[in-house]
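Q: Got a minute? One more chain.
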Amino acid sequence: MNFLFKYLKDKSIVEKLIIIYAISIVFIGIVGYSYYIYGSIKTLKEDVSIYKNKLIESKKQLVKNMVNVAINGIDNFYKEARDGDISEGDAKIKSIKLIYSMRYDVEKGQANYLWANTVDGIMITDPAKPSLNGKSVWDFKDKNGVYLFQRMATVVKSQGSGFVHYCWNKLGAPRNECISKISYVRLFYPWKWIIGSGFYLDSINKDVQNYVSRRKRDILKTVVLSFILGGAASLIAGVVFVVVISKMVSYLKQVGKLSEKLVGENIDEEIMLPYHLNDELGYLISNFNKFIDENYKLSQFKRTIEDDVNIEAVYKRIEMLMHDEFGFEEFSIYEVNNSKNALKQVVSYSDKMFCKQEILVDSSLCRAARTAKEINSFEDEDLCLSFAYKTEKKHVCIPLMIGGSVGSVVQIIFDKNTDYAGIRGKIKEAKRFLTEASPVIEAKRLLDQLKESTLKDPLTGLYNRRFLDEFAPTFSASVKRRNSKAGILMCDIDFFKQVNDVYGHNIGDKVLKMVVGAIVKTIREADIAVRFGGEEFLIMLQDTDEQLTQEIAERIRKNVEASEIFTSGNSIKKTISIGYAIFPADSENLWQCIKYSDVAMYKAKTAGRNRVIRFEKSMWESDEY
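A: Always. Here it is, folded:
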């Protein structure tokens, strides 16, 4: 980068911009094509799954239709026998011939077929394996141990028809090869026959592979074609860019001469910028100065409320801003208590409450709090059902996001005849200030919560379960908002009860402190350690990944193993078992990830203790955890 700056230092503005343009085009091309290819691959995976499911459903429907056609034919023969036109034996012979003759979905010399067997497992006709005709197939099972004909009988007896999954030897395949198959079976009740037909999934997989190959070729063609067209377009755009930039540089030279003239006349600094000229540059500078002024006020406001002593002072500051800066005469601020599903009116610059009282005890009745969306009765008068003065007033409710959910709602009230066009700009600007205030409100509220309760374990100095209960939603929302990962470690001291039994609880407390010391010196400052139970500790590693989580857990285990205390001439050493999970990779629910890490910790215990085990889905065997 320094080389580029040095290279461009003595170049003209036009040359600099052309070089930067060329570099940008190349960079954008690389990023754009990389993103397109990545997105195409990701979309392809999703499309392949959908395509495969559609093929399977299509095959299922085809098989089902063929079985139903056969059933209809058999039913016709049965009716002829019942009416005395033919004997029942002839009807069955005709039915068998019909089943034997039905072929469909021909592929490379092979075709799907139908078979028939009785509900007690006697094969009536199997066109592919005529050697089975007349024999009992009741005890046939596939390589997975599925008694397939028993399962078919169970399906038709319970529901008349249905699909059965199993594996079966395909014609032309080695005798010991069992290929996954899906069959549809239906009961012909008068004769207690099961009529069935199915298809092999390997043919589906071949179609899917062909589909993938076609899509990959299409992606490659698109990349090549877009590269050619993009290159041509970039070249044309570059020529236009050079022409436009040359014109702009010519104009800037004129502005430079004007500024030189102003400097020579020693004009005051306030008028050195030509913002007063009625041209495009003057218009741009004027708007830029306004932007700087507004952002200066915004930053001053945020710095001011950050230094306020508590959240009440922040709300008071917002009240002054809304009235003195923006001139709003009626407004309220409601604070949302998500744990109690309630609202509290913390600011009321009016002589009345404009919403129904029910919202105070049930925050879900406040549409802004429930949906986290701005409510504007100028645009939709009947949107919020809890506003009680629809015939007299208009209102705008602005939700403030705190920790991933609505923390406060600011409600501004206007007369019904207010010209919305005249106050739209004020509302938009007020929202900018309120957005800047949101993280400050969040910090002040959290600080108040810390002051209101004791959130640390007095023995170890770690956070306690109460802190975890209050902090978990904020931690979860923060990780998801940053699109990062967190390592969740559950640690348990091995054979800790023996320490209390042999040496007493005083020594047990020292062992706890020893282990905590090893943990604290291992984890990072941003990580959070919680005393989860007696000798259990929960550690939440922020902004981590699989490898780093494993490394930190292993360092904790080794540091604990290396630690020791001395009492009555004896050296006491302990080990620790650790299980961990990754949030939100293993689960979108933080508490579920904590449970997973607990499961992995128990696996570490049963595997011999003094080890680190990563949670796997196969560990989730029952609800006993």
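A: The longest strand covers residues 405-415.
Q: Perfect, thanks.
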